[in-house]
Amino acid sequence: MASLSSRLIPADFTPAPSLLPERVIDFDAVTAFSPDLDAIGFAVTTDGEVDAALGLDRAALARAGFEGKPGQSLLIATVDGPVVFAVGAGAAGELTADTVRDIAATFARAASSHARIGLSLSVVGAVAPESVGQVVAEGTLLARYRYSELKSEPKVTALTAVELRVEGAETSGVTAGIPRGVVAARSANLARDLANTPPGYLTATDFADLALSLAETFGLDVEVFDKQQLIDLGCGGLLGVNAGSAEEPRMIKIGYTPNGEPTGHVALVGKGIMYDSGGISLKPSDPMHLAMKMDMGGAAAVFAALTALRDLSSTTAVTAFLMCTDNMPSGSAYKLGDVLTARGGTTVEVKNTDAEGRLVMMDGLALAVEEQPDAIVDIATLTGAALVSLGPATAALFGNDQALVEQAKAASAATDEQLWQLPLEKKYRKQLDSDVADLSNLGGPYAGATTAALFLNEFVAGLPWAHIDIAGTMQSAADDSWRSKGATGFGARLLIDFLLGFRRVR
Ligand code: BES
Ligand code: MN
Ligand code: ZN
To answer: The whole model's pTM is what?
Structure first.
C-alpha cells in the first residue's frame, strides 16, 4: 500500500471482511436440533398456537410481558441444556419473507452471546421453504454483524453453527435456499466492513488494492486506473474532486463474465468518496459528518454485489466502475467557479465543491455508456435531500425507463432494501444551466435529489438507466431488524437480486 494510511497503520493491515469464504459457518436445515446447541429460539405469533416445546403457554408468556410482537424476545432460563428464547413473530396471517428475516435477526441478536444457535419456526405462512432458508440465513448473519476490527478486545461471539427447523417443510427445500442467503449476507457484510472502515485505513488506493487482492477469490476481472491513467482517459470530474487531496484517486473497473452466453449486460457505477469533507465548501463540524467515511457506500455496495455473482451463478454480465477519491480542502483543491471537463467532453462549472458526488459519477456514467450495456444502474450517497425526503429507511430511485425501474423495485421488495421512486422532473433541468460551461453542478434550493439525478441523466446518452440515492439508508443509528448499528451495506443485496433477475428492457 503506497498510500498515506500505510504510515499510520501496521503495514499488514487490510480490512478483514467478516464473512469471507474461509470464515463461513455451518448452517443447516434440520428436523430435530443437535443436543449441543447453546441457544434455541421459538418463533411465537401474537395469535394461534404456542409451540409446546417452548415449555410455556401463552398466559405464562403474557405474564412475563411477551406478546409475540415483531422485534420482541424473551429469555427463558433453563436448568441445563440450551438457553431458550421466545421470539416475536407478529400476526400468524401476516407472515412474509420480510417478517421471517426479521424473526431470525431478532433471535440472532437476542442470543448474541451464543455461538451455536437453533431457530424453530412452527408457521411460515405462504413463504416457500427455499425462501425461508434464504431469509433466515440473511437475517441471522446480518444481525450478528459488528465492526470490531479496531477493538483491542472485541466483545463479539462469532457464530459457529446455526440450525433451522421449519415445521411441516421439507428440509431439502429449506436447505436449498440457505446458500443464497449466506452469500447475500456475506456480500452485505463486506459492504458494511468497507463503509465502516475509517478513512485513514481505507483510501482509494487501499480500496483498489483490496479489489485486486480479492479478484481471483470471487472470479472477477479487476483493472485499476491511477491518476496518470485517469488523466489519459480525460476523467476531469474524478481528477477535479481529487485535486485537494494528498491521496491519489483510483478508478476501479470490474468485470464479471458468466459461464455460457450472457442473458444481459449491466453496467454499474458506484460513488466512492472515501471521505467527504465538502472540499472548500467545507462541511460544518457536525456529528453527522462523522459518517462521511461512508460516502463510498455506493462503490462498496457495487463491489460487494459483484463478489456474489459467481457463487450464485448469475447469467448477467456486469461491467462496474468504482469512482474513488476523497474530497478535501487544501491549497491545491478545486475551487468554486472552476470548470471541469468530463470524460466525453462535457464542461461543468463548479458552484459548490460539496456537490462532488455527481462530478465523479459523470465520468463513471460516460465510461459505462461506452460499454454499450443493456442498462446502467448507479448507486451513490448523493444528496442530503434524499435523507430529508425519505428518511433512513428508504432510498430514492430515479430512472429514464420505467421497465428498468420496475426491475429495481422488484429487487427492493425481495430484499427489504426499500426504494421509492421520485420523478425525474424535466422542468427543473434548467436549474443546472451555467453561464460559462455546459452544466452547473448545483441546482436550486428545492428537490435536491431530483436535480442531482437530472445532472446524472445528462451523461447516460439515453440508455436505460436507474439511479439509487442511498444518502439516507447507508447507515443505521441503532440495531434495527437486519440492520446493525453503523453502515447498513444497503444496495449490496438489492443489486445481487436485481442482477440475478435482470431482463433486457429494449
Ligand atoms: N455525500 C453528500 C451527501 C450525503 C449527505 C450523504 C448526508 C449522506 C448523508 C454529498 O456529497 C453532498 O455533500 N451533497 C450536498 C449537495 C449540495 C451541495 C447540492 C448536499 O446534499 O448537501
Ligand atoms: Mn459532498
Ligand atoms: Zn459526498
So the answer is: 0.96
